[in-house]
Design brief:
CATH class of the largest domain: Alpha Beta
Number of helices: 22
Strand order of the largest sheet: 1-16-15-2-3-4-5
Strand content: 15-25%
Shape: globular
Number of domains: 3
Radius of gyration: 31 Å
Structural class: alpha/beta
CATH architecture of the largest domain: 4-Layer Sandwich
Number of strands: 29
Largest sheet: 7 strands, mixed
CATH topology of the largest domain: Purple Acid Phosphatase, chain A, domain 2
Amino acid sequence: MKNINRMLALVMALAMIFSLSITASAAVTVEWSKERYQEAATKIDKVPADLSGKTVILHTNDIHGAVAQYAKLAALKADFVAAGATVVMVDAGDYSSGDPNVSLSKGASAIELMNAVGYDYATLGNHEFDAGWSTLVENLKSAKFTVLSDVQYQGKDAFPVGELKTLEESGLKLGFFGLTTPETATKAHPGKTAGVSWPAEANMMKVAQTAVDKLKADGADLVIGITHLGTDAENVPNSSRDLYKEVTGIDFIVDGHSHTVMTAGEDKEPIQSTGTKLVNVGVIVIDNAAKKIESNCLFDLANYTKEVESVKTISDRVIKEVNDEYGAVFAVSAVDLDGANKIARYHETNLGDLIADAMLWHIKEGGMDAVSVPADRVVALTNGGGIREDIKAGDVTRKDVNAVLPFGNTVAVVYVTGAELLEALEASTIYFPMGGFPQVAGIQYTIDDAKTFDQGEQYPDSTYYGPKSIQRVTINSINGRDFDPKATYAVITNDFLASGGDTYFAFKNASAQFDTSIEMDIVVMDYITTELKGTITAEKYGEVDGRITIKEDPIKVYTDVDVTEWYAPALRYVVTAGSMTGTGAATFAPKATITRAEVMKLIANMAGADTKPAEGEQWYDKAVAWAVENKISDGKDATSVSSREDFVIMLYNYIKMQGKGLASDWSFSLKNPDADQLSENATEAMQWMVENGVIKGVDDAGTLAPKSSATRAEMAQILLNMSKVAA
């Protein structure tokens, strides 16, 4: 009984009607932006006038060398004290690296400034290890604050995990504990962390619970976590949200690592994070008498102008030292080069292109005898998480380039098969943003974000997993030639990835590799000076080169859609086809019911009827009248919710109106378990839908649920099923 031409006609007709009751446009392009990754945050820009009887915890995270802000921070602390508060200052990690202002001293200048501000506690971030374990330990010898972390060295605790702080002024006993992300095993250079370990994934929560229980037993009124864990997808299952969910007794978490701006977690968890670069300062206000947290927010430093002169003297000296060494102009850029705010972690950027081009040029310029494969099988790849800043149009200094590439990574070459290269790309694009996101040269590849990562075995000594099969990434070409999974490719990368950093276990297991020992910032400057003749032109780097194509998942823009639900493929189909759109810019309402009047108006519009209401009429009056006249519906109970069989009947009546449907000699033969619940006038309609595979039931048994309310997701599924039948 299947008539393909009739099916195609109906699919096209349905495609016309399903957008008529929708308020949003049918466009499916998703604009990626840094704002997508920021949680809603409550901010203030003035210190409250009277904080008597209050204790305030001021906190920072991921400062990454923004040393000029420390003088403001010291002044802000003084203002809170002047307002009557007892102040405790803490930091959630990544203060030792990320900018020449701290990298030049290998982190020592950060410790000097933190001492000057007067921090009480800090935990360790993964970038505290950029200069190596011995350097970190040496720097911390001068720290006047206490480091709290679960980091171990040679199998023993290197720092206390927790500490009870008794505040004589307020009478409070505050328990603080610190955790460093176990991602550090792959987020720091393995060569810099020899002998260092973190509790295994399964044990981190146990370590935290033990610390919290001890602090409670010691009399802590409140327990505060100072964690460098993050809230991004790649931080799961060791994110700060996971911590709060798994460990009992935590009153608040001060978090870092993901650079998130937030004053509460997605599910209102008491977690706060300031972003990065000391743009904001976290504020937690505790009522001393009640011994409870009464509020939390972020203090926006943008318009705060006070500074402590003694701290400014130190930061000015540090900045001058860096400028004297790195401040000379060596090039000019005609364009802004994008790298900051995580942008290089979720799509191709012009700065990512330039860096990868420089790495490829560096090896080829040194003579192709440096590699043992043909030139058309040499590519470059660096991780987006290693690109830390923008380069603005205008003069370019070594400091600018070093700020982009602050970690001292060197250029290395690994030899992998095409299959291993594809595995690395698949493992590094599981979700967005992702530190391992590959910025490339010599490769054109596509990511299908609508496809799910097929998780395989966990990589050894890593928090990441390899792919069981390749689902999301396709390598379109290598240097303009067909990709060969069996061929050997020379991948020019950085020493961090060559050692298996981030998601690049495939590189660690390369058949061969070598390190040039030339730092990436030097290579980039050499490329700009020599190959680009000192000028970064708009013609070459004004736009991205199109090396990475992302087929966006069109339904991820809708915050009320779960991409793992049964309806996801149907929603992708109708949104991509323009058949249905959201009920708002960020909502699809897949589980929302539809009224009989909505169905009638949809069908009337499909038929080309005039449904525009006259003055004084309801929006559905003409549609209902048309439906009654053409025997689509009896028009009764128009504003009531449509049942599944109501919807099917009206659609089928329209099919019959077109001279289609079942022949007059049809017989009722439905095998569905609840077929006997169909109304008499619904059996023929349901028979046609079931026989043509348009309706398959709500479960594996084929339950029709005819009396249940029809939803938007079900409408989408019917349209998808119709398209499959027509095909």
